[in-house]
Amino acid sequence: MMKTKWTLALGALMVFGFGWWSGAAHGQSSARVYELRTYHCFPDKLPDLEKRFREHTMTIFERHGMHNVGYWTFEDEALKDKTLIYMISHESREQAKKNWAAFGADPEWKQVQTASEANGKIVEKVDSQFLDPTDFSPLK
Questions:
Q1: pTM of the entire structure?
Q2: Distant-in-sequence, close-in-space partners of 91: CB < 8 Å, separation ≥ 6
Q3: Which of these, 110, 113, 68, 59, lies nearest to 86 by C-alpha position?
Q4: Which candidate, 21, 14, 123, 107, places its Cα nearest to that of 69?
Q5: Under a CB-based contact definition with an 8 Å cutoff, are residues 73 and 83 in contact?
Q6: C-beta separation of 132 from 34 below 8 A
Q7: Which CATH class is domain 31-131?
Q8: For the chain (length 140 residues), average pLDDT per consecutive 10?
Q9: Cα–Cα distances in Å, from 106 out to 33, 60, 67, 88, 110?
């Protein structure tokens, strides 16, 4: 499973580095840090999580300095219906802490979270890793 996560992360970085998206094109400096997050959902809750991100979370992230890079689900059956992986970027690791604190305190987010979990919790577990681009990475 760890190999699959890293393969996905490396593949995502390669895809995003080949032209249509670059940090520089979005005004991002080379000091940016990337955060790879994996959400493990309770059974049958992935559609609810996807809806929450699609309709609300992505916009709230941007408002708090968290730039959306990409979102993925698995093709493999074992993880297909219960896992969401995404990557966001922050100005720095220190800024990431501030961004997450502001996001967690955002009244709109609190309202969205409460409404989306009216029929039970959606996310069972979250894994987060911070990544730095290499000096040879097309995505900085």
A1: 0.78
A2: 29, 31, 32, 33, 65
A3: 68
A4: 21
A5: yes
A6: yes
A7: alpha beta
A8: 49 40 43 94 97 98 98 94 97 97 98 97 98 88
A9: 22, 8, 16, 18, 6
